[in-house]
Amino acid sequence: xxxxxxxxxxxxxxxxxxxxxxRSHLKSFIASLFKKEKxxxxxxHYVFCSDDYLLEINRQHLQHDYYTDIITFGLSDAGxxxxxxVYISIDRVKDNARQFKIxxxxxxxxxxxxxxxxxxGYKDKRVKDQALMREMEDKYLGLYFK
Length: 146
Hints:
alpha/beta
């Protein structure tokens, strides 16, 4: 039976990771995010990688030929506990942080929460959806960094 515990949240580092301090706390927080959103979590694997690595995933699996900061793959059937892989480009996160003039640590956590929120059903294609996604990211950033 799936539970929302940190053992359900896994981090894999192909690149970066030095902006992720107190990883046990972060894993617990991610598990609690799913609980707050009333979603059952079986397993989530965060893979921190380079731009080139994520670009290749984007090309192969989504037929998109551009850089992105995150790709989230939900691997469970509808109605089942969430199983997922979330790929995050450390290069994009750093560039976005510079562009938006925010700390890398904040941008990295925003993207981590963004992936979890997608798995909870939040979208970001339409302007209205983007606004709600940003509101939820801000909510969880505030709770995490309080």
